[in-house]
Amino acid sequence: xxxxxxxxxxxxxxxxxxxxxxxxxxxxxxxxxxxxxxxxxxxxxxxxxxxxxxxxxxxxxxxxxxxxxxxxxxxxxxxxxxxxxxxxxxxxxxxxxxxxxxxxxxxxxxxxxxxxxxxxxxxxxxxxxxxxxxxxxxxxxxxxxxxxxxxxxxxxxxxxxxxxxxxxxxxxxxxxxxxxxxxxxxxxxxxxxxxxxxxxxxxx
Amino acid sequence: xxxxxxxxxxxxxxxxxxxxxxxxxxxxxxxxxxxxxxxxxxxxxxxxxxxxxxxxxxxxxxxxxxxxxxxxxxxxxxxxxxxxxxxxxxxxxxxxxxxxxxxxxxxxxxxxxxxxxxxxxxxxxxxxxxxxxxxxxxxxxxxxxxxxxxxxxxxxxxxxxxxxxxxxxxxxxxxxxxxxxxxxxxxxxxxxxxxxxxxxxxxx
Lengths: 204, 204
Description:
Two copies of one chain form a homodimer. By secondary structure, chain A is an alpha/beta fold.
């Protein structure tokens, strides 16, 4: 199911761009190319999800996006926070593309009071001691972890106890989370490794 | 094949950690859990790749890592550069985990001479006009793009003409690249979308 969810999320993002640029219809071929899969896979995903509406012109962009949005609740605004305001954390704090897509970063946290006081951002920033309280009182559903490796598990535990549904983890640590919590690791090294390995395989 | 390559890269990273911590053997069950897939899938991947050596104690960590390293050339050191030295770019410039895993960031580029002059890093930094020359003369194989959306395609074109094999793209743009070049997009918004969608599906 993970692969289907991943593809649907990419398709949803692509449909959002197409909708903004005024496209009315889209073919499964174009969707497949945009997200790097086959037309067959796109059609199979939609069939499993009982998504209909393929006409000679293709799928209607707006209605397809709406259907996927409802099915996966991608049409809901969700609040996120960032823990760890080093260079990566502060870069993400003001990453404007989140907001266009229904995600709002509403708080940042760091263990250094000095850093909290000096940081220049429009987002509210707090000492990490306030994490549990702010997450639960402000309805934050997603936690983004950009702290050093040794602090990551403890931060994850606090986030989960405070009620987040998922964690986007940038630290190079395998976090332990309960089964009902979604964890996704952004592993930059693995991304480079994938590129290198794929180049080797496809040019053999 | 993409999914197999992705899993193998994650397994390779996990084996590197296990090797460093002194583990001798590892089961396909542990590998599966570590990378978030099933034991069946791990065994199937290995069988497709003709990887043998499963004993009662499991796979020998060192030998399995070596086999995968040779097959996917993951044992080769590769040079990378970062184009766009904003906060994300500079965070990646000094990301120490790359180096432990065979990737070396050897150059950074930015269009602002002012930024180039003020930046504090041990990595060599250059004006973006030097990109083609530095990439080809220093044997850089991987380009990491952290420039704003409107500059991304042009930078990708220069990188490719200068001889990179793959591009790790952090800009929110679908880059056009020739078929033999590997492109991987790091889409932070899509990562949050995946977490939100998966939470909805698994807790239905």
